[in-house]
Amino acid sequence: MLNKILFFTCICGSLAACAPSSSTNTDVETKDSSALSGISLSEIDTVHTSQNSLDWAGTYEGTLPCADCPGIQTEIVLNEDETFRIQSAYLERDSKVEDSGSFTWYNNGGSIHLKGNATDVHLKVGENQLFYLDEEGKVIEGPNGANYLLLKK
């Protein structure tokens, strides 16, 4: 009989430990709101973007990865009138591609879409650098992520 009571007590204690505690949620809310104490919502900067805050117009260059050559020397020129020129030279080959067109800013003002005759590229605009984006619109990361970066001249 004592074993049954002890077993029942252990089960009840285990189940009680798994139940969510309402004080835990309150503590999290208190910590989050205390981090913002003294800051009004009007002071949080939601207006500045890469589009309106950075000196993004200019020439960017770098060497992008290539499946069957040492790399693709790439130069992109972004103009104030939202036009671009891209020049790509395949290293150790006699192959060069040039294109131009216009680009549009994404709604968040931090990324652009270059669209030309042979170009369809999505880039994140950073301080003096352009990051190539993957198909999901995210900066390419991982061991080769740094290879998908162009730096401003």
Summarize the structure in words.
The structure is a single chain. The protein is α+β, with helices and mostly antiparallel strands. The chain folds into two domains: 37 residues, no CATH class; 103 residues, Lipocalin, CATH 2.40.128. It contains three helices and eight strands.
Topology:
Blueprint: H1 2-18, H2 22-35, H3 50-53, E1 58-64, E2 72-78, E3 83-90, E4 95-105, E5 111-116, E6 120-126, E7 129-132, E8 149-152
Antiparallel strand pairs: 1-2, 1-8, 2-3, 3-4, 4-5, 5-6, 6-7, 7-8
Key phrases:
signal; alpha+beta; Cu-R_lipoprotein_NlpE; 153 residues; NlpE N-terminal domain-containing protein; 2 domains; Lipocalin; single chain
Would you kindly provide a brief summary of this structure?
This protein has 153 residues and is of the alpha+beta class. Helix content is 23%, strand content 35%. The chain has an 8-stranded antiparallel beta barrel with strand order 1-2-3-4-5-6-7-8.
Structural class: alpha+beta
Radius of gyration: 26 Å
Question: Overall mean pLDDT score?
Answer: 78
Structural domains: how many:
2
Q: Can you give the helix content as a percent range?
A: 10-25%
